[in-house]
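We now fix the convention by which a protein and its fold are recorded. The integers have meaning only within a learned vocabulary of local backbone shapes. A complete example follows; check for yourself that the lines match position by position.
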Amino acid sequence: MSIMDLIGKGIQAMIEEAMTPESFKIGEKFENYVRQHLFIEKYYDLLERTHDYHTNQKDYVQSSVKPDFKFRDRWSKKEFYVEVKFRSGLLHGKIEWCKDYQLKRYREYHKHTPVFLLLGMGDTPTQPDRIYLLPLDAAKYTGLFPSYAKQYMLPAKKPLPSKLLWQK
């Protein structure tokens, strides 16, 4: 590869970064946080992960409508999905985590494979102040009151033992 090719690729990467909406950057950062700190490789096999913004811009991958991750618990061998959302604040006093059509779609997946909602709250997706993990059955609405979500709070930056997933 010539120096000009390298420069061209570098410029293209900078353009792609500049063109990526901030909401997608935040989401991808929080997804990486979740895999690195909560659903770690030691406890969970990663079976599926939604594609990034640039891949879907070029040629939309239909599996991107699924929840963000599909894992297999190495202890119980159970497979499950995790939809990951990061929010910096409340809207009308609630954590607005999805749209109606998304919730409907997650419920369809949940009929066959358990789906969990993992919410991060705070100023930065790489260091969330609060993390909540709810089974989809507990996330009945597109907006959740913090007082309700509080019962599902997890410690930040601690790997999630699988017994917490299946205890309720």
